[in-house]
Amino acid sequence: MKKHIVVLAIIALLFSMFQVPAVAAKPQSDTIHSGSPFDNKIIKRFDSKRAMQHISYLSEDIGPRVTGTDQEKEAARYIQQQMERYGYDVSTQEFDIANRMQGQLVTSMDDNELAIRIATGSSSTTEEGVSGAIYHAGLGEPGDFSEEVVGNIALIQRGGLSFWEKVEHATEAGAAGVIIYDNADGLVPPTPSLGDNTASIPVVAITQADGEALLEEIEGSEVTATIKISEITNQKSQNVIAVKKPKGKPSDNHDIVYVTAHYDSVPYAPGANDNASGTSVVLELARIMKGYPTDKEVRFVFFGAEEIGLVGSRYYVSQLSDNELARSTANFNLDMVGTNWEEATAMFVNVVDGAPNLVWQSANDAAERLGNDSLILFERGASDHVAFYEAGIDAANFIRREPETAALEPWYHTPFDTIDKISQDRIQEAGELIGSAIYDFVRKETPRGKKGQGVNKRVGNYLLNEEPVRNR
């Protein structure tokens, strides 16, 4: 009997050791990742800490990267050096940009330089600029001026009259320059338009807050200002291009996929989200994918001069040969993917005509595999994917927005677009999601989309990524 009991006990012990539990003991994580080995090649290697280092260098070490400036060129060199470090052969593509006006407004209040926008139609100044006491001229009506404005700087509130009428009245009264301050709260100054008119004096605009601060100062004492405006000519910008060739395919017979981002920013804006964020994710994806075999050629292209009218991307696409265009399959364009603005919970996939295409398909499939429900298909141009669409290439722009109104974060195009407004978690999410879509697309043969939908035509009057010019 005892032997029988011992045998039964041993059998029970062995059974308990090898029994499969009813509930798996696998630990759960906050992020649902795909079991696909192809996705995991991206997910397990994408390092948002590296991406944040790129954002830090571009937005903090360099700062505003205005088209055509030394800072934009420094950013291009940084991108080139990083890509060469990853093992790519890198080329730069230089192109001309339109002449532009640059300016400065300094007041005697602790030699304070104010953020400005130069009016279209403003005159330039000498190198020394135009200086004078600030004279408050109300809304710029003829009766708002006295002899005290002669040879001085007229401070005029926006509203009531057109910008040109205000400037015309100030000029007739003898003012040496005009500062227009906004009549509504905003983080950046308005951009005044003088219509088809050209002023004989310099005209700039400032924010409501800066205008009201000047008003307080001139009530108690004289405050002087110096306006300097000069035209910058014969400037150039550049695209940075790195190519990953497919293995085992003839060099002239494979599809081409473009992974792109712009690296320039607007004046005064460090451009952490717009668009060091997209640039950083593309850099990190390029690092990861360098050693992976692909069936398609992948071109990582970093555009300059996006903020002045998508100039870099339009130039790049215009230089593609007919053979290259025929083999071009898709453009994944990343722009402003890292904001920590709480309301920006959705990743918009902007398509120029609003129709699903291969890029949307790939991203949506990746989102389903990764359990990510943040994607929204949206009809919009306004970024570098437009040039590819117009050439008949399936293209989409990835950008974080508020889902109900499609609003961007409040510090868009302002000096407050800084690295403290970046979410490292959202950078990681963008890298994993978009990277998985791209890698799945290029690692195997993907059915071609319907070509020629946008060849040689412009679609609509899409708002460019800069503040609209207003005449009132």
TrEMBL record:
Stretches assigned to the Peptidase M28 domain: 239-435
Keywords associated with the record: Signal
Pfam families assigned: PA, Peptidase_M28
Domain PA as annotated: residue spans: 141-214
Entry-linked InterPro entries: M28_fam, PA_dom_sf, PA_domain, Peptidase_M28
Signal peptide location: 1-24
Name listed for the protein in its UniProt record: M20/M25/M40 family metallo-hydrolase
